[in-house]
């Protein structure tokens, strides 16, 4: 099986079921033009995030890693009118671009971007005593995923959902001797989740236009 085939299936199925519109396409085009890396979730994955939020009835969402706002738009569109999405981004230029695309999608009222290292923002949110989130999507730098997961456990409500993207990395995650700090981070995260009594979790491998990767879906005890 080749990447070409995975990509063709993503395009065929997304063309039938996903319904990507001008605002989402524009978010990707603006990111490409500005030279951002092409590492947003695929449209099929964006729609999955959107559906999960609807299934869960989530109205408060936290995202780590905004990039150009593509996943942000997919998720914010699943919110009820009084819902809120807070997204954390290190790079001020990425955040500025995302803000424009989010405005283009008509979602500025629902979305707030905080610029800075995600770990600093997470600690600040805890200090501020922010209301807990219904769903947290961890998709920033991969090496820090264990620290992000640790904070997410404290910022997520009982019965809430934590999703972690890019766990599989072409299957590299099974290599205990990997020298890739991102893969090491994912292995540490999985080992943490394995012994974390507050969560029930599973890993789903994916292929598609973004290659071979996968995500972890975790449910906190209620
Ligand atoms: N969620 C996006 C993709 C995010 S890519 C989507 O699917 O559309 C990962 C993002 O994490 C990049 O924008 C990168 O700048 C950001 N990032 C990297 N290190 C970070 C850090 N320490 N804190 C916050 N964001 C970080
Ligand atoms: C990378 C980051 C992502 O969020 C992603 O979906 C794919 C790749 C990366 O940093 O390489
Ligand atoms: Mg990702």
List keywords for this structure.
222 residues; binds 3,4-dihydroxybenzoic acid; alpha/beta; Rossmann fold; globular; binds magnesium ion; 8 helices; binds S-adenosyl-L-homocysteine
The CATH class label is: Alpha Beta
User: How is the CATH topology named?
Assistant: Rossmann fold
Identify the overall geometry: globular
Q: Can you count the beta strands?
A: 7
Radius of gyration: 17 Å
Question: Any idea what the CATH superfamily is called?
Answer: Vaccinia Virus protein VP39
Bound molecules: S-adenosyl-L-homocysteine, 3,4-dihydroxybenzoic acid, magnesium ion
Which parts are unreliable, with pLDDT below 50 for 5 consecutive residues or more?
none
Per DSSP, the total helix count is 8
Q: Work out the strand percent.
A: 15-25%
Class per helix and strand makeup: alpha/beta
Report the sheet with the most strands, covering strand number, pairing sense and barrel closure.
7 strands, mixed
* Average of pLDDT: 98
């Amino acid at each position: 099986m080749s990447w070409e085939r995975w990509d063709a299936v993503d395009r065929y199925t997304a063309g039938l079921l996903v319904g990507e519109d001008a605002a989402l396409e524009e978010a990707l085009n603006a990111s490409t033009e500005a030279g951002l890396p092409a590492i947003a979730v695929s449209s099929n994955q964006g729609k999955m995030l959107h559906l999960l939020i609807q299934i869960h009835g989530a109205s408060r969402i936290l995202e780590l890693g905004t990039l150009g706002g593509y996943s942000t738009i997919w998720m914010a569109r699943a919110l009820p009118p009084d819902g809120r999405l807070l997204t954390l981004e290190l790079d001020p230029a990425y955040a500025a671009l995302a803000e424009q695309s989010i405005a283009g999608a008509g979602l500025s009222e629902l979305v707030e971007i905080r610029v800075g290292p995600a770990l600093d923002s997470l600690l600040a949110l805890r200090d501020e005593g922010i209301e807990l989130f219904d769903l947290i999507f961890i998709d920033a730098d991969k090496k820090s995923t264990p620290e992000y997961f640790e904070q997410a456990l404290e910022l997520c409500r009982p019965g809430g959902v934590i999703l972690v993207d890019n766990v599989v990395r072409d299957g590299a995650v099974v290599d205990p001797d990997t020298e890739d700090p991102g893969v090491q981070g994912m292995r540490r995260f999985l080992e943490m989740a394995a012994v974390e009594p507050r969560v029930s979790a599973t890993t789903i491998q994916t292929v598609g236009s973004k290659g071979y990767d996968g995500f972890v879906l975790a449910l906190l005890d209620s």
